[in-house]
Specification:
Length: 142
């Protein structure tokens, strides 16, 4: 509880209702930072619900998660409200991964835009298979 209190005191911007990270150029607000704040319990209740809405709504002020970190974003919104966000998670996965599925490639990419992404070093990455976990856990009968 003390650690979560200190995280919120140090990294929460009440005006923006978001957590920030600090780096050489200043502050940034990322989906990943919001997700970790929810998952560790640094924010709960109505404030966590607002963050989940921002992450699922494509809020332009948040830096999008990379494919390898999408699981934290999905887990965070599902922690806030599984029933509300399970269809959104499946929709976001379909939107994000459909280019890979419809390409002529036989593997899943390291980056969302594949070979067209500057600095992409691999067009075959295990974390890109992560949607299988969500399809399995979110579509099975309760």
């Amino acid at each position: 509880k003390d650690l979560n209190r200190r995280i919120k005191e140090t990294f929460y911007d009440e005006k923006d209702n978001s957590f920030f990270t600090i780096h050489g150029e200043g502050k940034s607000y990322t989906e990943l930072g919001q997700a970790w704040a929810i998952l560790c319990g640094a924010i709960e209740g109505e404030a966590a619900e607002k963050l989940a809405e921002r992450m699922s709504g494509g809020y332009p002020g948040l830096v999008r998660s990379s494919l390898s970190m999408m699981c934290y974003k999905y887990d965070a919104v599902l922690k806030v409200n599984r029933e509300k966000y399970k269809d959104w998670v499946l929709w976001d996965i379909e939107k994000t991964y459909s280019a890979m599925v419809h390409s002529d490639d036989t593997t899943l990419w390291e980056y969302e835009h594949g070979a067209g992404c500057e600095g992409a070093s691999s067009l075959c990455h295990g974390w890109s298979a992560m949607p299988l976990y969500y399809f399995h856990t979110l579509t099975e009968e309760d």
